């Protein structure tokens, strides 16, 4: 009896050790909540839980590596900390994974502790279930029922207005009949002497008529001239684009530098439309939209995800296989800013040579609306626009006014040397500005500068 109890006790101990080992292997000894934080901080650039990004999906990865490669928890720790060294050691399964995923080398994480890795594995094994999000676009209860009621109310109002209008017409007809019945013979004679046609009125008051016609002709000429002067001025123009792109999200919330995408604005005459490959630098790993607090009214996650899929279609990117298919589709962007052919404008001249001068001038004229990037002086606060629009007139007068008010920095190395012999002469020529030299003083109003 005693022997049986000892054997039973040993069996229970063995089962307990087996269960604890199994639990440890599957990551249950870790903290899933802390693992979620570590996962988002270290893994989401290349991995997702439920789909392939650059690397494979990580949900259930502990069970998967055990089934596929017959490896244990220690192998996962080695792989995460230094997969390169593990492959170099000749580990068969490590090299199979490397070959399977296009020889894309995984980052090394020697900074993660054993506890950190256990927490991440616990999260991938049993990720917390998020509560379902409330559908903001769903109609309020009873909205469908209220629609017919609103329609019937509108019909009643229209019928009532028509009835009132008919009643007013009937009253006017009756009043006219009463007036005719009440007219005396004297009134009838007086009516016969009144002007009954435009011709008679013009003959009687022709001087006044000619004066009115002259005034109307002048006003019409001014109106036509004013209309002609504003042809091609489209301030506020903001067309819909084939792929929705929010500058507020990218330049505003994410603080992406303008020149990361519009690089030629700094080094060339024209600020080009970025290639779709520039978008793929980030969106190769960002395949869905998860920033709820950046959403615009009337737009949901499905809308933003659909726009990202348009980028993939344009570049021929297959997110499932993480490779390009070679089937691309050109994107027909609608141009917003476009100078006429007879106007010369060089972006680099303003972005590099005139950067600080333009910023200082703008902030001086707009103390309550200061800018920190030279692009905003012409294009407005682009980092607050969801849909880009033309923020200024971009007329000749608008450019000239800027040249007349923007002060040139005569102390920077280039201007100090280039205008060395003209410096004192210009100060004497423009004493009204207290020695300040604006762009117009150094040729900013010469016709050939902009028209060639």
Concise structural overview:
The chain crosses the membrane at residues 156-173, 207-230. With 452 residues, the protein is mainly alpha-helical. It is built from 22 helices and two strands.
Task: Describe what this molecule looks like in 3D.
With 452 residues, this protein is an all-alpha fold. It folds into four domains: 2-125, Cytochrome c-like domain (Cytochrome Bc1 Complex, Chain D, domain 2, Orthogonal Bundle); 196-229; 275-332, no CATH class; 347-450, no CATH class. It is 55% helix and 1% strand. It has 22 helices and two strands. The chain has helices at 2-25, 32-42, 61-69, 73-88, 92-100, 114-125, 143-182, 185-193, 198-204, 206-229, 247-253, 258-261, 264-267, 276-283, 301-315, 347-353, 355-365, 375-379, 396-405, 413-418, 423-429, 447-450; strands at 317-318, 323-324. β1 and β2 (323-324) form a beta hairpin. α4 crosses α5 (92-100), α14 (276-283) crosses α15 (301-315) and α16 (347-353) crosses α17 (355-365). The protein is flat. The chain crosses the membrane at residues 156-173, 207-230. InterPro entries: Cyt_c-like_dom, Cyt_c-like_dom_sf, Multihaem_cyt_sf. This is Quinol:cytochrome C oxidoreductase. Keywords: Heme, Iron, Membrane, Metal-binding, Signal, Transmembrane, Transmembrane helix. It comes from Chryseobacterium pennae.
